[in-house]
Design brief:
The structure is a single chain. The chain is an alpha/beta fold. It has 2 domains: 235 residues, Aspartate Aminotransferase, domain 2 (3-Layer(aba) Sandwich); 88 residues, Alpha-Beta Complex (Aspartate Aminotransferase, domain 1). Helices cover 41% and strands 18% of the residues. The chain contains 14 helices and 13 strands. The strands form 3 sheets. The protein has a 7-stranded mixed beta sheet with strand order 2-8-7-6-5-3-4, with helices on both faces. Strand 5, helix 7 and strand 6 form a beta-alpha-beta unit. Helix 2 packs parallel to helix 11 and helix 3 packs across helix 10. The longest helix is centred in the C-terminal third of the chain and has 15 residues. It is globular, with a radius of gyration of 20 Å. The structure holds pyridoxal-5'-phosphate (PLP). Pyridoxal-5'-phosphate (PLP) binds next to helix 3. The site of pyridoxal-5'-phosphate (PLP) has 13 residues, from helix 3. It is an enzyme of class 4 (lyase).
């Protein structure tokens, strides 16, 4: 099977497993797991941020950030295609009692001007208090597209001006960094909190980190505990994260090259209506003749290819660590034969 459903399906490599088994561990709820402490410090330093907290999932790191930055009667501003809105079970309301203002960005990327127009008057008792802006980079639903850092600077300066917090859902931030060559420390400078996933392109079995100021991460520890995310000797998992930060960032380029090759092969095939521009490791294409994505994905499965339906007419492929050039060649051959 050629499995392109997600970059979460990867298996830990031998090197990663060896690093995991060799990890010194302790009780992280007591703050005594040396490997988790090392991972948190390493990730914070990478982005030039003060502190970090290791969590089981990116949903948890995003939801903790939202909880830390909001309160009842407040509002989160984000794009309508955001993971925090679409794919986190209504967590903004459930975990934080906050409202959400949905913007219609360019493939999920919003601008400072759009945000400016959607900040509520804090003196109007009818309206929730605008408190947090959340961006996603790369943008999953936008076909893995990347923000122009200039826009992020504008958004960050608007947020400071208007006293809004700025969070980044960076589940695939490393893909954005590799695609643009941007300095990670610029991200640390402009966002109050950043969520990164180790279990996507970086190839870890489990784990995400929330990065931020010492004060915010201290609050995050309390929220993580109440959500049931306080883990004990989880340093075995953190060791995989340290290994991934050391070995698996630069290789994301290969995933991007292969994704572009898939997009080129799809372009012009008779079952394809259009392919979204590919910037990183996600390929989303629309089916021709209003064919349903669910049916098409079933057809692919019979040919040994796994993908996910991404909306009624759209199909998504994601390239990753366990998808190599031989599989790419085989995939393109199979697609052309359909
Ligand atoms: C995968 C993902 C997350 C986190 O998902 P988990 O499965 O909870 O780790 C968050 N945001 C985006 C954009 C994602 O793709």
């Amino acid at each position: 099977m050629i499995d392109l459903r997600s970059d979460t399906i990867t298996q830990p490599t031998t090197g990663m497993k060896e690093a995991m088994m060799a990890a010194p561990v302790g009780d992280d709820v007591f703050g005594e797991d040396p490997t988790i402490n090392a991972l948190e410090q390493k990730a914070a330093d990478f982005f030039g941020m003060e502190s970090a907290i290791f969590c089981p999932s990116g949903t948890m790191t995003n939801q903790i950030a939202i909880r830390v930055h909001t309160a009842p009667h407040t509002e989160v501003i984000c794009d309508e295609k955001s993971h925090i809105y679409l794919y986190e079970g209504g967590g903004i309301a459930y975990n934080s009692f906050a409202s959400v203002r949905l913007l219609h960005g360019d493939r999920g990327r919003i601008t400072a001007d759009m945000i400016q127009d959607n900040i509520n008057n804090p003196d109007d008792v009818h309206a929730p208090i605008s408190t947090l802006v959340s961006l996603e980079n790369t943008m999953n639903k936008g076909g893995g597209c990347v923000y122009d850092f200039k826009e992020i600077e504008k958004i960050s300066s608007l947020c400071k001006d208007k006293n809004l917090k700025l969070h980044l859902d960076g589940a695939r931030l490393f893909n954005a960094l590799v695609a643009t060559d941007d300095d990670p420390k610029k991200y640390g400078k402009h966002f109050d909190t950043i969520s990164i996933c180790l279990s996507k392109g970086l190839g870890c079995p489990v784990g995400s980190l929330l990065l931020g100021t010492q004060e915010d991460i201290k609050k995050a520890r309390r929220v993580r505990k109440v959500l049931g995310g306080g883990m004990r000797q989880a340093g075995f998992l953190a060791a995989a994260g340290i290994y991934a930060l050391d070995h698996n960032i630069k290789r994301l380029e290969d995933d991007h090259i292969r994704a572009k090759a898939i997009a080129e092969a799809l372009d012009g095939l008779k079952f394809v209506d259009s392919v979204m521009p590919v910037e990183t490791n996600i390929v989303i294409f629309k089916l021709a003749n209003n064919a349903l994505s669910v049916d098409f994905v079933n057809k692919l499965k019979q040919k040994g290819i796994l993908a996910v339906p991404f909306g009624k007419l759209d199909v998504r492929f994601v390239t990753h660590l366990d998808f190599d050039d031989d599989m790419l060649e085989d995939l393109i051959k199979k697609l052309k034969a359909i």
